Amino acid sequence: MVRIKRGFIAKNRRKKILKITKGYRGASKTLRRDANQKAVKALFNSYRHRKNLKRNMRQLWISRINAIVRLRNWNYHSFIWNCRTKNYYLNRKVLAQLAVYDKESFFTIF
After folding, report:
1. At what angle do helices 92-101 and 32-69 cross, to 10 degrees?
2. CA 10, CA 107: separation in Å to the nearest integer?
3. Which family does it belong to (predicted)?
């Protein structure tokens, strides 16, 4: 029987990892084991930071709304509660953009 090595399977797997670590510095872009560790760490961090970005952006929107609302001596909680009772269903992102870019229309709406 002819010996068949699984060369292309392993080669493709290694190429996939080295493609991920293409712009890295040092041994982690060329050596297979180091590249694999760096790729796993990078993918894990990118997943975690995507989740944190959503959290941080919501905090930023809330703080922007709170800052503009305090100019009228309200607080954030009562402002959101009044919006809900009056059936103004604008999300926090839109409210924050209104607060930053167009303060006059923000106060005319509310």
Report:
1. 60
2. 63
3. Belongs to the bacterial ribosomal protein bL20 family.
Q: 31 in a domain, yes or no?
A: yes
> What is the sign, positive or negative, of the torsion defined by CA atoms of 65, 68, 74, 79?
negative
Place of tokens 């607080």: 75
Residue 1 lies in a domain: no
Structural domain including 73 reads 7-109
Q: Do the beta carbons of residue 99 and residue 65 sit within 8 Å? A: yes
Return the amino acid letter for 36.
N
Determine the distance from the C-alpha atom of residue 95 to the mean position of all C-alpha atoms in its chain, rounded to a whole number: 20
pLDDT digits (tens), the chain, 110 positions: 777 777 788 889 999 999 999 999 999 999 999 999 999 999 999 999 999 999 999 999 999 999 999 999 999 999 999 989 999 888 999 999 999 999 888 888 87
Residue 110, Cβ density class (10 Å: 0-12 exposed, 13-18 middle, ≥19 buried): middle
